[in-house]
Amino acid sequence: MSTILVTGGAGFIGSNFVLDWIALENDSVVNLDKLTYAGNLQNLASLKGNSRHTFVRGDIGDAELVAKLLTEHRPRAIVNFAAESHVDRSIHGPAEFIQTNIVGAFTLLEATRAYWNGLDDAAKKAFRFLHVSTDEVYGSLAPTDPAFTETKQYEPNSPYSASKAASDHLVRAYHHTYGLPVLTTNCSNNYGPYHFPEKLIPLVIHNALAGKPLPIYGDGQQVRDWLYVKDHASAIRRVLQAGGVGETYNVGGWNEKPNLDVVHTLCAILDELSPRADGKSYKEQITYVTDRPGHDRRYAIDATKINRELGWKPAETFETGIRKTVQWYLDNQEWVTNVTSGAYKEWVQTQYRA
């Protein structure tokens, strides 16, 4: 049985990818994750005892460990999700983002290059390194600007997006300089099961049910394209299967929505599925807070290329995906309770102050 190495596979997107891969594909998965605050083994609880899933706690910046895993498991592909990924946290503490997203990516690439160079010709040709990135590397769009295409100039505006842009450039360079067979995907805002409640959608669901304020940055008119995480996972599987070596594919949901509209939708679904005891709408809990520094106004993904070349398109609309997401959080309150512990509460208190 062949194997793939997934880095960051206990995080939100990574764990969804691993769960779907085990369910739908034949390869085994070696899952390397540092288990920072956003990495959660509970996400992978359903795989306990599954011989096709091997979890290893560790850092992509640990060259010795990565080399050991590559030698032992001989993966046919690496899918790199490992990253610090929250813009607000990067503003307050950029050093970790530089270390993981740039130095860690470099270390992983170096170990991969050494491993790949040692493969026989057939394995070398079949091997792939898929790097998962973000639309935030492209910067911000004006209301009437066309959506981001793969040829859009990079203009990152936060320490997070700058660190991801640097890792994208390293991946590109390793292909052009060393011939490493790489693939890059740049996705829009993900949502869905196992999303750590620091991001907008899970935070609003969590706070609404707890009777707390629903914090909205600035005027709430920041526009994002929303991608259901299971659709993202399917796109990565497709790119890994058939993507052109050295190519970049933008992955989006074709769902541009202002943040305030997203919150109103969440409130309406919660009003229906889990109404407040007093009969009022959750919208009454909306609170406007000081906007974050350098907040990008609009992101939008043009996902034409991946549809045209690989035949991929999202299965979920925003309306179907967001309803599934709310229902998942209502059905999995124990998971939410376990991840919203002391350290998380302190973070939210610090970040979302009026």
Which properties best describe this structure?
16% strand; 354 residues; alpha/beta; 13 helices; 7-stranded parallel beta sheet; 3-stranded mixed beta sheet; 12 strands; Rossmann fold
Description:
The protein is of the alpha/beta class and 354 residues long. The chain has a domain at 3-192 and 227-254 and 298-315: 3-Layer(aba) Sandwich (Rossmann fold), CATH 3.40.50.720. It has helices spanning 12-24, 63-73, 87-92, 95-117, 121-126, 159-178, 200-210, 229-242, 259-273, 304-310, 318-331, 333-339, 342-351, and strands spanning 3-7, 28-33, 53-57, 77-80, 128-134, 182-187, 189-191, 214-217, 223-228, 248-251, 256-258, 286-289. Helix 6 links the parallel strand 5 (128-134) and strand 6. The mean pLDDT is 93.
What do the pLDDT scores average to? 93
**Which outline best applies?**
globular
Order of secondary-structure elements? EHEEHEHHHEHEEHEEHEEHEHHHH
Beta-strand content bin: 15-25%
Architecture blueprint of SSEs:
Blueprint: E1 3-7, H1 12-24, E2 28-33, E3 53-57, H2 63-73, E4 77-80, H3 87-92, H4 95-117, H5 121-126, E5 128-134, H6 159-178, E6 182-187, E7 189-191, H7 200-210, E8 214-217, E9 223-228, H8 229-242, E10 248-251, E11 256-258, H9 259-273, E12 286-289, H10 304-310, H11 318-331, H12 333-339, H13 342-351
How do you describe this structure in short?
By secondary structure, this protein is of the alpha/beta class. It has helices at 12-24, 63-73, 87-92, 95-117, 121-126, 159-178, 200-210, 229-242, 259-273, 304-310, 318-331, 333-339, 342-351; strands spanning 3-7, 28-33, 53-57, 77-80, 128-134, 182-187, 189-191, 214-217, 223-228, 248-251, 256-258, 286-289.
